[in-house]
Amino acid sequence: MGDIPFSDVYIHGTVRDDTGTKMSKSLGNIINPLDIVDRFGSDALRFSIISITAQGQDVFLSPQKFEIGRNFANKLWNASRFMLMNLKKEMVGNDLCQMSGDPSLTLADKWILSRFYSALGDFTKFLKAYRINDAANRIYEFIWHEFCDWYVELAKLTIDEVHTQLTLYKVLEKSLRVLHPIMPFITESIWQRLPKEHGTESIMITKWPHMQKVFISKKTDSEMELLISVIQAVRNLRATWRIGTATRIDIHVKVKKEGDESVLTTNSSYIKRLARVENVLISKDMKKPRHSAVQVIRDIEIFVPLEGIIDLEKEKERLTKRIEELQGLLSGIEKKLNNKNFVSKAPDEVVKKEKTRREVLKTEIAGFKKNLSSL
């Protein structure tokens, strides 16, 4: 042709099986992509390979790796179904730009818009640098952990409101466009089901979403991170004390900063819904209620009164018994490690494993003792 054939060449690492052996037909350790498509789907195949293929590094491939892409596709499909079941068609013609500074936007709305445009900026930057696996993992983190796990759940509180409808629609539609080069089939399938303006036949020929930095806010991100931390802390307390989600509990929150108190008070409805809480009491002068479980996040203390929620005497008995069991195991390990013959003759990895077990047991015992003292 009389011209330079390529301006860029992308070189990936060697593809190996899960034992580290190079994949080869002669060795019989290859994976037939058509088998993977039949089992997991073509988008799962594409996403899984892209997400684990870093520049210059070998790729370790096994059939189980494709479960990542399949699970991601399922997550996206289910979230899209929820939105389509609740979406009002008049949302289509509205422009997201007009929502900047709209007082009707909730903290959750502003947060997911901030996180989307942050993800869009990173995704675009990674693609330009040929860090394709980083791009895939960045949009995965946004869609799965921020949009599906948090925003969709938070949106259920205000699902009939215009601001929530528009935010759900716009973020999903734009996310599909970003994900399309990596997972073309499921994104096209969902996009075709979305109500949209006439003139665009395929997601393939839509424009790339343009960056709107006005929506990116560190303050919004920080406030939402605080709320999420509190919700997760309450969920952890439920798990620790074996309090089922059907049981409504009260929480007492002691804060040090007025800003934190304002954020938690204004958005207490999120805590009530996602942590299954009846009443949220927030104060800078909060005293620890009697017989309360405690969780500390940053400089915030969260108390859950346990009286009337669990049988205190049975719980004391259970914790005491568990502490005794763990102390018995710890004593056995201590004897081993204090035995010079064992330490000198046993393989290093065995001694190291016993030392690790000792530290784990000490941590568990300290945790159970702390819980017992709460009662």
Radius of gyration equals: 26 Å
Which strand order does the major sheet show? 4-3-6-5
Mean pLDDT figure: 89
Count, helices: 13
Outline the biggest β-sheet: 4 strands, mixed
Tell me the β content.
Answer: 5-15%
- CA distance, first residue to last residue: 82 Å
Unreliable sequence segments: none
Q: Categorize the overall geometry.
A: flat
Helix content: 55-70%
Order of helices and strands: EHHEHHHHHHEHHEEEHHH
Structural class: alpha/beta
Overall strand count: 6
Key words describing this protein structure:
375 residues; 13 helices; alpha/beta; 8% strand; four-stranded mixed β-sheet; flat; two-stranded parallel sheet
Briefly summarize what is shown:
This protein has helices spanning 33-40, 42-52, 67-86, 107-128, 132-155, 162-179, 184-193, 218-240, 258-266, 268-274, 312-338, 340-345, 348-374; strands spanning 15-17, 59-61, 249-254, 277-283, 292-297, 300-305.
Question: What's the helix and strand layout?
Answer:
Blueprint: E1 15-17, H1 33-40, H2 42-52, E2 59-61, H3 67-86, H4 107-128, H5 132-155, H6 162-179, H7 184-193, H8 218-240, E3 249-254, H9 258-266, H10 268-274, E4 277-283, E5 292-297, E6 300-305, H11 312-338, H12 340-345, H13 348-374
Parallel strand pairs: 1-2, 3-4
Antiparallel strand pairs: 3-6, 5-6
Helix pairs in contact: 1-2, 2-3, 2-5, 3-5, 4-5, 4-6, 4-8, 5-6, 6-7, 11-13
